[in-house]
Amino acid sequence: MNAPVLTRSPLARPRSSRWARRVTGALAFAALVEIAGRAGLAEFLPPASEILQRAAALLFDEGFRAHAGTSVLAWAIGLAVAALVAVPLGVLFGSVPVIDAATRAIVEFLRPIPSVALIPLVALLIGTGLQLRVTLVIYAAVWPILYNTMYGLRGVDPVARESLRSYGFGRLSVLWWVSLPSAAPFIMTGFRLATGVALILTVSTEIVAGRGEGIGVFIYFAGIAVPARMDDILAGVVWVGLFGVVVNALLVAAERRLFRWHHTRVGGGS
Amino acid sequence: MLEIENLTHIYGGGGPSAHHAIDQLNLSVAEGELLCIVGPSGCGKSTLLRSIAGLITPTGGRIKVDGELVRQTPDNLAVVFQDYSRSLFPWMSVADNVALPLRRKNMDKKRRREAAAEALESVGLSGAGRKYPFQLSGGMQQRVAIARALAYRPTLMLMDEPFGSVDAQTREDLEDLVLKVRGHHKMTIVLITHDIDESVYVGDRVVVLSKAPAHVVADLQVDLPSPRDQINTREHPDFVHLRAEVGRLVRGQPVAH
Amino acid sequence: MTRLGGALLRWPLLIVLVILWEVATRAAGSAFFPPPSTIVTRMHALWFSGPPGRLFLTDQAVADILPSLGRMAGGLAGGATAGILLGLALGLSSRAYDYLDGVLQFLRAIPPPALVTVFLVVFGFGMRMQLAFIMFSIIWPVLLNTADGARAVEPLYLETGRAFRLSRRERVLRIVLPAALPKVFAGLRLALSLSLIVTVFAELLPGTTNGIGFQLTVAYSMFNLPAMWAGIVLLGVLGYLLNEVFLVVERRVLGWHHARETAGA
């Protein structure tokens, strides 16, 4: 209130120097892997330079590109369907308490089922093609989106809702003008969490099914080769990890841009 | 007891965004005195207090407590901050909050508990020890913060706008609490406030600071009959006169003689 | 709709739904969708028809459920402890955090199953590999959330600790850690559901010899649909129970936090 900033806040440091530190940290990490690999500290670990070279080479490898493309496709379709299903359902459950109470039981008993446990059953039902991955991605990605949408709608400020209703707006207009915008940051957060879960399910399904195309299949075969192709596995992991980081960073940036009002309201603390 | 020589503090180390908070400030406080420091908002009062407490290292000058140069927080010094909601720990019961600092004093658990109970009693909160801070009103939380300082048995107690976040009635009660407590425990108190009435009502002496960079503008002795009383003292002619004078000094107007 | 009203509605509705499910599956008569009564009978026969002295658990239950729970508990305990300790260390030094932030974000973004072959190569098949894999999978959400919590501690809490001359150890233990607890629990909650997923995943892989995931694979290879459904329902029930236990613990440990939030302080 009256005291000036007394503690050194990490946020006060210029962004450029934080980025420099991040890059330095990443380089140091790579150097560590390089040294460990070269010194043979861990016999299974190739040096970082080899992993990165292999990762770069894979970009021009048509087989790998097909694997990666299939995975991204399954991931994207699954996420899109999950969002199309979960957001309307979340809005319905979050704004109509009777339906919420009525469906709560199903939701509460379906959600704890670990999605990977469904892989064998769904594989029996519909085979191990693209549809298997898409189905499991949908199942896993629905929950975070549904939950966050419901949570966001329940947290809508009743004063804001009532003030619009007092101007003669109907239920649907209030939903459109007040409830949805104020729940939007939560929906977005749910979607961001879902992208991570969807990636886990894509890779898990591909590894368990163990056939067809997909980055998981690529990694699995590199693993069961004799001797195991550690460079292939880790190069594949580098690409999957980078994909996850980039998707997450883009969504965080979008959240910051779109919902600046939200961050200032909660003090940026969350 | 407390001596401050040529204290200077600049935030931001001389760059373009540097803020000159305190400039060549000199002050000394005698043993057992209750000194009030007033000044316009943002004048560097809190910086001064945090320098005395050893929480920040001033860029220039010297501070001595009991003849010892302050490098880190001195022994036997306790601080009561304005924002009780952020200085009491919400995850600890009231009694644990009060007893926590005593861990530094080589007391066993039983004695720590007794000391906490005693301190809570002296601020009128006996029996509240098992509660959590969020279960108490703002005024009661600030009493807990004062009890925590008392339990520590400091020789010097620093109070940073301790009553700035409570309502008027509670404020008066807490002012009287400080006067009462000070009679029981022999200690020196430095109380920082922006409330002119409060400084004259509570203090033995009032020091007025300038706008930032802060230095001492005036040093006034308060000779009001004691014990002080919220109604009688405030209508005493000396009180009315003194508070007008302090008011003019704080606003930077010439003092009428 | 009050909480009580919701709870009162919940159970009758669930029963109605189960009856509907039963009727629909009986009418359809599909081998792929056995009626719930068949599933429950199978669960009972498989796992819960043992002697009373063993809490009615069969040998099969001991072979399926206990190893899964053991792996999960071991991995969770190890990963969470390491995550909290490392997260605290990282959160206390803003410099270390800046340097490692990028690397950690990358490690967290890797879907753990992608690394399972690495763990296979390093540890071979077996319990050691599974434990290491589960720990690695769940450490990141705990670590990053703890670090965030430790970094965001209210400065006045720390100043108060310093003003009363608490030692560094005591400030970490009594101020930083409790202040970060709400965030730690957010990380643990993610870790809990993730640990169930990766445990089952690890058990689905070739080379496993026990666990609920292994039981699912066996049922799959024998085209035994009731047994598969039984495994899935069992996992759902376990997931539900574990989550309830977690909530009880959280409510106890973070009582002060929730009470403060609802009090609007």
From TrEMBL, chain B:
Residues 2-236 form the ABC transporter domain. It comes from the Bacteria. This is ABC transporter ATP-binding protein. SMART domains: AAA (SM00382). Signal peptide: none annotated. GO terms for molecular function: ATP binding. PANTHER family: ALIPHATIC SULFONATES IMPORT ATP-BINDING PROTEIN SSUB, TAURINE IMPORT ATP-BINDING PROTEIN-RELATED.
TrEMBL record, chain C:
Keywords: Cell membrane, Membrane, Transmembrane, Transmembrane helix, Transport. It is a multi-pass membrane protein. Residues 65-246 form the ABC transmembrane type-1 domain. It comes from the Bacteria. It holds the Pfam family BPD_transp_1. The keyword Transferase does not apply. It is found in: Cell membrane. The chain crosses the membrane at residues 72-94, 106-125, 131-154, 175-202, 222-242. Belongs to the binding-protein-dependent transport system permease family. This is ABC transporter permease.
